[in-house]
Amino acid sequence: VSPDEEGICSGKYFTEAGLVGLLEQAAASFSMAGMYEAVNEVYKVLIPIHEANRDAKKLSTIHGKLQEAFSKIVHQVMDGKRMFGTYFRVGFYGTKFGDLDEQEFVYKEPAITKLAEISHRLEGFYGERFGEDVLEVIKDSNPVDKCKLDPNKAYIQITYVEPYFDTYEMKDRITYFDKNYNLRRFMYCTPFTLDGRAHGELHEQFKRKTILTTSHAFPYIKTRINVVHKEEIILTPIEVAIEDMQKKTQELAFATHQDPADPKMLQMVLQGSVGTTVNQGPLEVAQVFLSEIPNDPKLFRHHNKLRLCFKDFTKR
């Protein structure tokens, strides 16, 4: 709504009935999108209006719709059917893109979109625009070096990203909806070793975490939002090991507390955790990092943390 427009305030939407109509539409749309928590927020605005008008009929309809929304949340949580979106970072490189050159975006795709699907779609779209021989998709997620690119080509780099939260945010983001709503930060990890290979032995395996911040929060009117800030965290091999151990412990905890119990799941997690076939398993981690106390005092904290991870792990 633009306030300068002539007669905008006398339009049909600028009345109480108009507002009520728009809010009802919004609630219906949120309901179709499966965002039942937002339905509740919209009705919080509508209920006082109908209460002031003593409109029992409207109130009865709203409370019926609210009951539907909340029972859907309960059922979907139990069935594990809630899916909101999959996110990808897309970087554009090459003068052919004009303003888009060196720009990065986060794309929101329908739930369970595979990397191959979005890759195929963007390849088709930009391939038609520039010619298929001009467009190239960069297959890895390493930082792109502009000097090594062919100036006559257009390059796209697509990486799967996950929503990223700080530890303090997790206190408020408890439900599945909280973790998939109002998202501005995304993360992807790239494994690397100092000599240029992606994967190496445990003691030489580093990891780069890239955290992207978008200019607006998802879900948004547009399904792609540009990245305004980017930060990188480099994890040393022992920190990579700590993360792996924490992840394994979480998986074990999840598998042992599942209700109803799922023996297959537990079997898989256990095999992955203690099976000697996996040479990068916990046993190997312990032998590499914990067999002797590190010489570098900076590593004491990590050393202790890893020992605590193992303590937790063996408890599980």
TrEMBL record:
It comes from the Eukaryota. Pfam families: DHR-2_Lobe_A, DHR-2_Lobe_B, DHR-2_Lobe_C. Transmembrane segments: none annotated. InterPro entries: DOCK (IPR026791), DOCK_C_lobe_A (IPR043161), DOCK_C_lobe_C (IPR043162), DOCKER_dom (IPR027357), DOCKER_Lobe_A (IPR046769), DOCKER_Lobe_B (IPR046770), DOCKER_Lobe_C (IPR046773). PROSITE patterns: DOCKER. GO terms for molecular function: guanyl-nucleotide exchange factor activity. Keywords: Guanine-nucleotide releasing factor. One of its GO terms (biological process) is small GTPase-mediated signal transduction. This is DOCK7 protein. It comes from Halcyon senegalensis.
